[in-house]
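Minutes, structural biology subgroup

Action item carried over from last meeting: produce the structure token record for Large ribosomal subunit protein bL33m (Rattus norvegicus). EB confirmed the sequence was re-checked against the source entry. Recorded below for completeness.
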Amino acid sequence: MCFELVTVFFDLRTILVKLVSQAGTGFSFNYKRSRLREKLTLLHYDPIVNKKVLFVEQKKIRSL
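Output recorded by EB:
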């Protein structure tokens, strides 16, 4: 029983979030991050414009 509680606690530490391109193409991808971390902004390749552009976290999809 104690082991089950520990695994549930560790599972709730990460969440799946949706990152959306700021180039205005509508391209997005999902990324796993820590629940305690601030919202993500990162450079990633956007295949529609063939460049690395800024992606910003739009919403939380689910807990992992």
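Discussion: The helical segments are 2-11.
Next step: EB to file the record with the rest of the batch.
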